[in-house]
Write a structure and sequence with these properties.
Blueprint: H1 2-40, H2 42-48, E1 62-68, H3 75-83, E2 92-98, H4 104-117, E3 122-125, H5 133-143, E4 149-152, H6 163-167, E5 176-183, H7 192-214, E6 226-229, H8 230-235, H9 246-256, E7 260-269, H10 277-303, H11 309-319, H12 324-341, H13 347-362, H14 365-374, H15 380-384, H16 387-410, H17 437-456, H18 461-495, H19 506-511
Parallel strand pairs: 1-2, 1-4, 2-3, 5-7
Antiparallel strand pairs: 4-6, 5-6
């Protein structure tokens, strides 16, 4: 009887463990597919990454929208850079869409007046409320504009002078609805955290976007560093704010309406990466929650559309990548009993338990990010040597982003919690974060899995369990360290009679 119960438990564990690995390996296989697509279409991608001449006649009129909300550290830099765009002054205008409640108002309005004094058509625009957050601000600005094209830059980006001239030529084709350019990274080398973030974003831009563009699959406007045809926005129904990823939502609606997108990997707009773990987690939370909300909103339309099966399958992977995070948490919890109750007594168990974990965790990551590095002229080794840190950080983010997936699956919309930018005043804005209790608990479970893997002979599982331990521990340690530093700064400010200058909105506390 006891033996039968033990066998039943082993079979149950194997089924759960196998299902989780199957899901994670499917994402790995898809990542490998995207990497191979970039290799297979290498020559085509080289041809697509080129400037298109706008043709005879006057250049199209462009409105450049700069949505701001409490961006005192970077607002002036953004507005001044936008004023340096190399484009006929009678063919573009700048809209500073400022919903700020702090000194950003004075900084931004002053910067706009300086542009106007130079003869640049710049407008400082405020609303009576913050309805719709960024999407609402963009829609409000659009109602005040009559331009054919609309470029958008977030506060932490620095548009380069040649940006508009480099991309407007694509709109000669009336079916082109949007041109997205690549993000650069001003502070890539600031820390391990920023270097891994840069690698993650490079994988998205230089592998995912290029692969989808080369095969005529749908990809998305990244929220900044891109330019829209006004008619495409209108045909899609305009900006909507029932999800936290209004850019992804509008992108799919516009492409389902028949417009095509262009990706220009050769045009780069530098931007700032979050340097604090709390800010990075809040950003990732918003993206994960919003992506799940968008998939809830549009998945049925995508699956019932006239897209062929290949494009629909790609869209499913595009809209549901964050399911990997709940799977990672479940893997952490299931791995320990699997190691204990299914000892590695032979090659069969080794193949069933250890080898899939090894392949599922690393099988496609190396090639995926190596291609992203090579596409920038770097060595593939730059990506490979950061692979352990990338895996560890992904695991460390898993519990926080699992909450985001759960939240997005139950609620639409929500507060748009912007990512604090360091800029010139590095301590002006901080993200409030809750105690990392889940990360600490999962780190202890993973540490127990390391011990179990060594005691039971699951040698392949040991290094990955160790990476998970380090990932959970790293995230927890960074969050706790930032909280202690923040409390010390607040105490010091109070003792000196000053203001802490810390942004502690209730929505930020909930999101982080």
């Amino acid at each position: 009887m006891l033996r039968a119960q033990q066998m039943f438990m082993q079979v149950g564990l194997l089924l759960v463990y196998g299902s989780i690995l199957l899901l994670l390996c499917s994402y790995g296989a898809h990542r490998a597919h995207l990497a191979l697509t970039c290799i297979r279409h290498r020559k085509k991608l080289e041809g697509l990454a080129r400037e298109v001449e706008p043709g005879p006649g006057p250049l199209p009129r462009v409105t450049v929208q700069l949505p701001l909300y409490n961006e005192a550290t970077v607002a002036r830099r953004l507005i001044e850079a936008t004023g340096n765009l190399d484009y006929p002054r009678d063919r573009f205008e700048i809209q500073v869409l400022d919903d700020s409640t702090d000194e950003t108002q004075a900084i931004a309005s002053s910067a706009v007046e300086a542009l106007r004094a130079r003869g640049i058509d710049a407008h400082y625009v405020r609303r009576n409320d913050r309805v719709g957050y960024k999407a609402g601000a963009l829609a409000h600005g659009l109602a005040l504009s009559s331009s054919e094209l609309v470029a958008i830059f977030d506060a932490d980006f620095i548009p380069q002078p040649e940006f508009l001239r480099s991309v407007v030529g694509h709109f000669k084709d009336p079916q082109i609805g949007m041109v997205q350019t690549r993000w650069g990274h001003l502070n890539r080398g600031a820390s391990l955290l920023t270097s891994v973030q840069a690698l993650m974003l490079d994988g998205h831009h230089l592998v995912e976007n290029r692969a989808r563009y080369a095969t005529d699959c749908m990809f998305n406007f990244s929220g900044t560093g891109g330019i829209w045809r006004r008619a495409a926005i209108d045909a899609a129904g305009g900006w909507e704010h029932d999800t936290l990823t209004e850019d992804l939502d509008l992108s799919y609606r516009a492409q389902l309406a028949g417009y095509r997108f262009v990706y220009r990997a050769d045009v780069t707009t530098p931007a700032e990466l979050p340097e604090e773990m709390a800010a990075f987690r809040a950003q990732q939370y918003r993206w994960a929650k919003g992506t799940i909300q968008t998939s809830r909103k549009l998945m049925r339309k995508v699956l019932s559309s006239e897209l062929d099966l290949r494009r629909r399958i790609e869209a499913v992977f595009h809209l549901m990548p964050h399911l990997a995070y709940p799977a990672t948490v479940l893997l952490t919890l299931v791995l320990l009993p699997a190691l204990v109750f299914m000892p590695a007594t032979g090659i069969r168990t080794l193949v069933i338990i250890d080898l899939p974990l090894c392949i599922g965790a690393t099988g496609s990551l190396g090639a995926f990010y190596a291609i992203a590095e090579v596409a920038q002229g770097r060595s593939a080794w730059h990506a490979i040597k950061k692979l352990p840190a990338l895996i560890a950080l992904g695991a460390g983010l898993a519990p926080h982003l699992t909450r985001a997936v759960w939240d997005g699956s139950r609620h639409m919309a929500g507060e748009f919690v912007r990512t604090p930018k360091r800029g010139a005043m590095q301590n002006r804005y901080r993200q409030v974060s809750s105690l990392p209790l889940a990360e600490i608990a999962l780190g202890l479970v993973s540490l127990a899995s390391v011990a179990a893997s060594l005691l039971t002979g699951h040698w392949f599982a040991a290094p990955f369990a160790l990476l998970f331990t380090l990932g959970y521990g790293y995230v927890a340690a960074r969050v706790l360290g930032e909280q202690l530093a923040e409390r010390a700064a607040v105490a010091s400010q109070k003792a000196s009679g000053g203001s802490a200058g810390v942004e502690e909105a209730a929505g930020m506390a909930r999101a982080a």
